[in-house]
UniProtKB/TrEMBL annotation:
One of its GO terms (cellular component) is periplasmic space. Keywords: Signal, Transport. It is found in: Periplasm. SUPFAM superfamilies: Periplasmic binding protein-like II. Pfam families: SBP_bac_1 (PF01547). Belongs to the bacterial solute-binding protein 1 family. This is ABC transporter substrate-binding protein. It comes from Fertoeibacter niger. The lineage of its organism: Bacteria, Pseudomonadati, Pseudomonadota, Alphaproteobacteria, Rhodobacterales. Its main location: periplasm.
Length: 442
């Protein structure tokens, strides 16, 4: 579906004397737009008869407005560039979104000029030569969370620009911990001890709820717990597996033990993704849960939750000597390497990822910004207090394995870790998994 922006849609018009436009002139033009256009998001300017037309393709996220409305604002804020919005399916249909982008980018005809992408697609698009390296246009990324910058980097090149994010986090029952006189756990052992105690006291049926289904969310859970033990799935160069090393094996063993040994998790977690694990928690049957940010408003809704005003959120625990890690989700921005209008695309990308637009997305879509300082923004704190409280969670955001073979690696991880949970022979299954991953990434 293509969103029709306000006003006439002009056909592609080349920038006048484009070959004569220097890099310095372009940066000066962009800076001038940044000072005027970005600060006045709602200001309408006179529209020129001839404009460069570029396209922006994105999954359809909806809130108080749509991404098509963002394009309308940009189009009305200046008179040189017109953005046509190409609406892809919603992120819940991520396979369809991915296929739609692949089909368009593979044509190498420059459409779409700008696109948003799930973090797990960034390396693949870069490896295929479809994503324009962005380092020369955005040399300073210090305002973004480091985890999002890492996820946007492939082969030491920035190939995507951070936009909005989500990550895994620890939900807990504040009332149960208060009754026990306990603090929020910061280590996995503390969490397991408190979870078992709550079960023993009859305060909760389940101690710890998580997602063990053979699906992408299992990879997310694995990334978090392995990283929190100073382990990794792949080496930094992405060319060899580390999933069978002691740190990773111990982390997966811990998850297995929550079912088989400590029994703080039900056997059913092995068939659960996000919603089946969320429902018993908001029904008041669990003490701790790993999940995404979408759960919090549900937990606070009296029509859907039995634990209203009883739920807290914190960074996920870590092992002794490790640090909290939260699997990074969200969509980031890219430019088509075959775009015929790079300067215009960079200008629009700069606007989309600006602090002003990220604030607007946070307020109107409920999607968390990737700029750390926006978590101190007074308006976001007032209108989205839960989001504003998540800075410590997002600080530990960790990318999934960065490899152009990600889809194959993910399927191997899902299968290998699931086999470990069924057999209980974690080391042997992780050894077999490492062999398979090494075959894939070789």
């Amino acid at each position: 579906m293509t969103h029709t922006a306000k006003g006439p849609v002009h056909g592609p018009v080349k920038l006048a004397d484009r070959s004569m436009t220097s890099r310095r002139q372009f940066l000066q033009t962009s800076a001038a737009f940044g000072a005027a256009g970005m600060a006045g998001l709602g200001v309408t300017r006179a529209r020129a008869q001839s404009r460069v037309e570029i396209s922006f393709a994105s999954a359809a996220f909806f809130g108080k407005e749509s991404f098509g409305d963002l394009c309308d604002t940009f189009n009305e804020s200046q008179d040189r560039i017109f953005v046509r919005f190409i609406e892809l399916p919603p992120p819940s249909s991520s396979t369809e979104v991915f296929q739609g982008l692949v089909q368009q980018l593979a044509r190498a005809d420059g459409t779409p000029d700008v696109f948003s992408q799930d973090v797990i697609w960034i390396a693949g698009f870069a490896e295929a030569g479809w994503a324009l390296p962005l380092g020369e246009y955005f040399p300073d990324t210090k305002d973004y969370f480091s985890g999002t910058v890492a996820a946007c980097t492939y082969n030491n090149q920035l190939t995507a620009l951070p936009w909005f994010m989500d990550s895994g986090m620890l939900y807990y029952r504040r009332d149960i911990l208060e009754k026990m006189g306990a603090e929020v756990p910061t280590t996995w052992d503390q969490m397991a001890t408190l979870a078992a105690a709550a079960q023993g006291a009859g305060d909760a049926e389940f101690g710890y709820l998580w997602q063990g289904k053979q699906a992408e969310v299992l990879v997310c859970d694995a990334v978090e717990i392995i990283t929190s033990n100073n382990g990794a799935i792949l080496a930094a160069d992405g060319k060899s597996a580390l999933v069978n090393q002691p740190e990773a094996v111990a982390a997966i063993q811990f998850l297995y033990d929550t079912i088989a040994t400590t029994k703080i998790s039900p056997q059913n977690v092995l068939s659960w993704d996000e919603e089946p694990s969320r429902m018993p928690f908001t029904a008041g049957r669990g003490t701790f849960m790993r999940n995404w940010s979408y759960v919090y408003p549900i937990a606070q809704d009296p029509a859907a939750s039995d634990v209203v005003d009883k739920v807290g959120v914190a960074p996920l625990p870590a092992f002794d000597g490790g640090k909290s890690a939260a699997c990074l989700g969200g969509y980031q921005l890219g430019i088509n390497a075959n775009s015929k209008y790079r300067e215009a695309a960079v200008e629009f990308l700069t606007w989309l990822s600006s602090a002003e637009v990220q604030q607007r997305i946070a307020l109107n879509f409920g999607l968390a910004p990737t700029r750390a300082n926006l978590f101190d923004d007074a308006t976001i704190k007032a209108e989205q207090p839960f989001m504003a409280s998540l800075q410590s969670v997002f600080t530990g955001a960790t990318a999934r394995p960065i490899t152009p073979k990600y889809s194959e690696v993910s399927l191997a991880l899902q299968s290998g870790i699931s086999k470990a949970f069924v057999s209980g022979n974690v080391q042997a299954e992780m050894d077999a998994l490492a062999t398979e991953i090494n075959r894939i990434v070789a």
